[in-house]
């Protein structure tokens, strides 16, 4: 019993190996023969040397390449059932719906295969029953490795391979892991020895999972294309902007930074005539044009400033004194921007509003007045640009420094203007850590009028201001500013507008740093 069992297992391995080798062998495509065709006469016997099998075929009797060319296919034999219970040929009673693909047959099928299968079925037909149909419900022995050679075309005629059993019941589908070369299915017996399929066969690549996360979908979107140039020949040809125009766009985007709260910019230099008011208006106009409004320029002179002389008188001649008198009404919860704008001057070209100082000396602005006005303007405006006076000791001047998020120091390359700025920086340096941080974030705005440049002063002090402040911005001489009339941004030279925009971008960068650094 043991010898018979071991012999059956050995034959199963040989039959499974023969099946795998036959599947790897390219087979021609055959068409289904006519069952009523008269079998052809046997050809003349070949030479004895041709009929004698070689050593390889003796060792592997199931290999198809050892079959002589004179042998016939199984279906060419007479339609008489073989004496053995196992049938190695296809079942001709297969329904037409299951034979959609072309039937393929190896070039030759040796008779030794039938004899080997018969011997295996007879040996194991007792206790082991390796060749019986395990799930088909039949008692007849089936081929060890699935039987029919028609499996090469996607169809297997034996019961174990999914074909109809002798009892009329369809066998189970082949196992999913038994993929052979070219998409063929291994029989259950071959899957026992090759559970992972044919060695060397490429596994199907898994399809990449599609992600529907919002951040990944947004990152997958293409970047917006850069807008064409707006000036010069590049604009006419719809080309990309040049380096100058591209830098101007970057500065405009930086100046339009959305801050998380209202911010205050203070323009200060104790020396009169150093360019505080023009610098304040240039900065407010550049920010207003970049941001589309929401900017107010405030003349915080304790007595009488001159901002009312440098701006257009649009629809209001009210001053800070009039606003202080209307403060009970303006501080109500239902107060609106239109109520506050009645006391301001709107500058159309720069898209900003102006709050002028008192025109008389009878009303002096104190610290408490500064606090009330600062809180009111912070409710309705996002950016406050404050022009200061010449008295560092006044209470409203000191309150402005305490509320400042950024400091702009206008100078001219003249001895008195630069000396006053240096003294102010030294005084602020002694006011504590907050004032020191404000100095490090300061921006120097150099605005020279005609004949105001002293080359020796510039040579000695430029490096000093560059080391103490965050940046130094040069504003070129503009005749419109030097005329000392109302400042209209549309009348400025292009180089002056670009310099003002650069100043606004530098200040916005320092404000962003100040808001992100914890105090």
Could you please describe the fold and organization of this structure?
The protein is of the alpha/beta class and 519 residues long. It has a domain at 253-516: Rossmann fold (3-Layer(aba) Sandwich), CATH 3.40.50.300. Helices cover 38% and strands 8% of the residues. The strands form two sheets. The protein has an eight-stranded mixed sheet with strand order 5-6-4-7-3-8-9-10, with helices on both faces. Strands 1-2 form a two-stranded antiparallel sheet. Helix 8 (243-255) packs across helix 19. 35% of the residues are buried.
Task: Using brief descriptors, characterize the structure shown.
elongated, two-stranded antiparallel sheet, flagellum, alpha/beta, single chain, 519 residues, Rossmann fold
What is the molecular shape?
elongated
What is the β-strand count?
10
Strand content: 5-15%
Question: Structural class, please?
Answer: alpha/beta
N-to-C SSE series? HEHHEHHHHHEHEHHHEEHEHEHHEHEHH
Return the CATH class of the domain at 253-516.
Alpha Beta
- Average pLDDT score: 75
What's the arrangement of strands in the largest beta sheet? 5-6-4-7-3-8-9-10
What is the number of helical segments per DSSP (H or I, 4+ residues)? 19
GO molecular function: ATP binding; ATP hydrolysis activity
InterPro entries: MipZ (IPR015223), P-loop_NTPase (IPR027417), ParA/MinD_ATPase (IPR050625)
Pfam families: MipZ
Biased composition (Gly residues): 154-170
Strands, helices and their partners?
Layout: H1 2-24, E1 29-30, H2 48-51, H3 55-59, E2 103-104, H4 111-124, H5 188-193, H6 214-220, H7 232-236, H8 243-255, E3 263-267, H9 276-291, E4 295-300, H10 320-325, H11 327-330, H12 337-341, E5 345-347, E6 352-355, H13 367-380, E7 383-388, H14 395-403, E8 406-411, H15 415-429, H16 433-440, E9 443-447, H17 455-468, E10 471-475, H18 479-482, H19 494-516
Parallel strand pairs: 3-7, 3-8, 4-6, 4-7, 8-9, 9-10
Antiparallel strand pairs: 1-2, 5-6
């Amino acid at each position: 019993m043991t010898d018979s069992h071991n012999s059956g297992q050995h034959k199963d391995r040989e039959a499974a190996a023969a099946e795998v080798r036959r599947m790897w062998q390219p087979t021609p495509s055959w068409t289904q023969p006519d069952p009523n065709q008269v079998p052809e006469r046997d050809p003349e016997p070949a030479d004895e040397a041709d009929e004698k099998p070689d050593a390889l075929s003796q060792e592997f009797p199931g290999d198809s390449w050892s079959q002589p060319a004179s042998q016939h296919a199984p279906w060419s034999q007479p339609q008489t059932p073989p004496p053995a219970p196992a049938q190695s040929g296809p079942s001709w009673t297969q329904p037409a719906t299951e034979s959609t693909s072309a039937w393929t047959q190896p070039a030759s099928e040796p008779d030794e295969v039938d004899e080997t299968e018969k011997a295996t079925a007879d040996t194991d037909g007792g206790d082991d029953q390796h060749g019986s149909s395990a799930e088909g419900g039949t008692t007849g022995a089936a081929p060890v490795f699935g039987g029919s050679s028609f499996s090469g075309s996607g169809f297997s005629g034996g019961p174990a391979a999914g074909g109809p059993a002798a009892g009329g019941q369809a066998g189970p589908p082949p196992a999913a892991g038994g993929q052979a070369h070219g998409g063929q299915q291994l029989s259950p017996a071959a899957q026992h020895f090759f559970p992972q399929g044919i060695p060397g066969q490429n596994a199907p690549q898994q399809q990449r999972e599609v992600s529907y996360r919002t951040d990944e979908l947004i990152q997958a979107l293409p970047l917006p294309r850069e807008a064409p140039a707006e000036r010069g020949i590049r604009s006419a040809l719809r080309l990309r902007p040049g380096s100058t125009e591209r830098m101007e766009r970057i500065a405009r985007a930086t100046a339009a930074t959305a801050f998380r709260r209202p911010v205050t910019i203070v323009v200060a230099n104790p020396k009169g005539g150093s360019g505080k008011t023009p610098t304040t208006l240039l900065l407010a106009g550049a920010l207003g044009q970049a941001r589309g409004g929401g900017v107010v320029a405030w003349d915080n002179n304790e007595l009488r400033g001159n901002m009312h002389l440098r701006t257009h008188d649009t629809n209001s001649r009210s001053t800070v004194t009039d606003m202080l008198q209307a403060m009970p009404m303006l501080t109500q919860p239902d107060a609106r921007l239109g109520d506050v704008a009645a006391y301001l001057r709107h500058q159309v070209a720069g898209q900003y509003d102006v709050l002028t100082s008192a025109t008389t000396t009878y009303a002096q602005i104190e610290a408490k007045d500064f606090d009330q006005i600062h809180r009111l303007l912070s409710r309705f405006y996002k950016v406050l640009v404050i022009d200061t006076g010449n008295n560092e000791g006044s209470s409203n001047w000191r309150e402005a420094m305490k509320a400042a998020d950024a400091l702009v120091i206008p100078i001219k390359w003249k001895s008195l203007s630069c000396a006053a700025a240096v003294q102010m920086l030294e005084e602020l340096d002694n006011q504590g850590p907050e004032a020191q941080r404000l100095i490090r974030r300061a921006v120097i705005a150099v605005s020279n009028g005609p004949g105001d440049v002293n080359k020796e002063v510039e040579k000695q002090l430029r490096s000093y201001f560059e080391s103490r402040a965050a940046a130094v911005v040069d504003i070129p001489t503009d005749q419109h500013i030097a005329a000392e009339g109302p400042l209209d941004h549309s009348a400025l030279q292009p180089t002056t507008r670009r310099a003002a925009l650069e100043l606004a971008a530098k200040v916005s960068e320092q404000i962003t740093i100040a808001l992100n650094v914890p105090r």
